[in-house]
Amino acid sequence: LKKNTTMSEVVEKKVEETKTEEVKDETTVTTEEEQPKKPEIDFNTALKQVLKVALAHDGLARGIREACRAIDKRQAQFVVLADNCDEAKYKQLITSLCAEAKVDLVNFSDKKVLGEWIGLAKYDRNMKPWKVVNCSCVVVRDFGEESEEMNIVVEELKKNRK
Predict the structure, then answer these.
(1) What is the rounded CA–CA span in Å between residue 103 and residue 156?
(2) Cα 34 versus chain centre, distance
(3) Is a pLDDT exceeding 80 seen at residue 107?
(4) Which carries the bigger pLDDT value, residue 2 or residue 97?
(5) What pLDDT is stored for residue 141 in this prediction?
(6) Is residue 90 within a helix (H) or strand (E), and if so which, with residue range?
(7) How many other C-beta atoms lie within 10 A of the C-beta of residue 63?
(8) 64, exposed or middle or buried, with CB in 10 Å at 0-12, 13-18, 19+?
(9) What does the alpha-carbon distance between residue 148 and residue 89 come to, in Å, rounded to a whole number?
């Protein structure tokens, strides 16, 4: 500051500086076309997320014994059955129970991956699964909370019903 400046001149300079800073800080408004779009979520990714949320809210029945109970009590929202199940009678029992109770059945490819998704795995320090228990059947009794993934799974199940 110069020695001969008055207080009002200093205040005016400060006001002008703040106005120019405010103009620089204004954000530009983007249209919907310019905003980045969310990537599409496939069914397996959505199913994995739904199973994790249901596990956190204690909404899963794992294994044949718990699954049969949940289906018989009409608590099942839908059932996930592994295709590479060892016993043919196991598959036959679950499919017939689902047909009787009119519960949606999702066929899944691998029982080891299904076991990992529903929390039947131990992890090492680097969070890599080293001991995974196979699981051939999972029943979702409670979704837990509303999510985009849940909507994707429900819509896919509705498509398969028709």
Answers:
(1) 14
(2) 27
(3) yes
(4) 97
(5) 92
(6) helix 88-101
(7) 14
(8) middle
(9) 35
DSSP class of 3? T
> Which residues are CB-contacts of 52 (< 8 A; sequence separation ≥ 6)?
117
- Choose among 134, 105, 114: nearest CA to 44: 114
**Six token digits for residue 60:** 């899963």
pTM, entire model: 0.69
63 conformational bin, left if phi > 0, alpha if psi -120 to 50, beta if neither: left
On the 0-12 / 13-18 / 19+ scale of CB atoms within 10 A, 105 is middle
- What is the spatial distance between Cα 68 and Cα 62, in angstroms, rounded to a whole number? 10
Task: State how far the Cα of 62 lies from the Cα of 85, in Å rounded to an integer.
Answer: 14
Give the pair of three-digit tokens for residue 45.
Answer: 């990714």
Q: Can you give the pLDDT at residue 60? A: 92
Q: Model confidence at 40, in pLDDT bands (50, 70, 90)?
A: confident
